[in-house]
């Protein structure tokens, strides 16, 4: 089976998100879900660059597609920020932060005596992302909007 944007979505993006939902306080699972949901843009762009350039003509460069996706679904920027953590992660005073539009905090960190979790009204825990503007957003909500809503609506149908 060849990798298409839809196959990547079904083989990696959805399962990583489902894994994360099983333990929504687990930063590793959250990062894996964010990385695959963000990487989906690269898969999409690379595939259509080779297979059908007419699909991507409105985005001359991959960064143009990323900007469009952020405009389409603002939560995509949060997902991008968390995915960027893998590239720029550093620890500071028991918190993991990143020089990106957001920082990951409020998570269980192995080997550290820190366990900060956010209790939502329904009692679930979540990873929180602090944005540069100091707003705090839920990774679960951002991933839900990107994985469940944005990508399925955005991806073109593929021939069998």
Topology:
Elements: H1 5-22, H2 27-51, H3 62-72, H4 75-88, E1 90-92, E2 95-97, E3 102-105, E4 128-131, E5 136-138, H5 139-154
Antiparallel strand pairs: 1-2, 3-4, 4-5
Helix pairs in contact: 1-2, 1-5, 2-4, 2-5, 4-5
Task: Report what the structure shows.
The protein is mainly alpha-helical. It has one domain (5-154). It has 5 helices and 5 strands; from the N terminus they run ααααβββββα. It has helices at 5-22, 27-51, 62-72, 75-88, 139-154; strands spanning 90-92, 95-97, 102-105, 128-131, 136-138. The strands form 2 sheets. The chain has a 3-stranded antiparallel β-sheet with strand order 3-4-5. The chain has a two-stranded antiparallel ribbon with strand order 1-2. A hairpin with a 2-residue loop joins strand 1 and strand 2 (95-97). The longest helix is centred in the first third of the chain and has 25 residues, at 27-51. It is globular and about 40 Å long. It starts with a helix and ends in a 6-residue tail after the last helix. The model is unreliable at 97-121 (pLDDT under 50).
